[in-house]
Design a protein that fits this description.
Elements lengths: L2 H15 L17 E6 L5 E5 L9 H11 L1 H5 L6 E5 L12 H6 L11
Parallel strand pairs: 2-3
Antiparallel strand pairs: 1-2
Length: 116
């Protein structure tokens, strides 16, 4: 698999992850900035490195399950093989990681210090 093919596959995975909605906030995990990295190995195994909005999130299992469900079509069509989800806490998540879309959807107003 070439580097270009890996990058295209990562983009497709990220697109599928936009279907995974955080049950508490009602916004997808990509726009919330919870997905830190997508790793693809030579056998097309995928590891999603992500965080949660809080360490004690009771819905972590639901989100992981939803991720695997969202990527199942790519598995069915043979584009990817195994899916692993790794929850990490570094760097810690904060609202500055959210997309503009997520901030608007959640009614978060940016001050001059928040704009990037």
């Amino acid at each position: 698999m070439t580097l270009e093919e890996k990058e295209e596959l990562k983009e497709r995975v990220m697109g599928e992850l936009e279907q995974v909605i955080d049950p508490e906030l009602g916004v997808d995990i990509v726009n919330l900035g919870l997905v830190y990295e997508i790793h693809v190995d030579e056998q097309s195994n995928v590891k999603v490195e992500m965080t949660l909005t809080s360490m004690g999130c009771p819905l972590a299992g639901t989100i992981v399950s939803d991720i695997k469900k969202a990527l199942s079509d790519l598995q069915e069509f043979g584009e990817i093989n195994d899916v692993d989800v790794e929850i990490v806490w570094n760097p810690p998540w904060d609202k500055s990681m959210m997309s503009r879309y997520a901030k608007i959807a959640l009614g978060i107003h940016e001050g001059p210090e928040d704009q990037k």
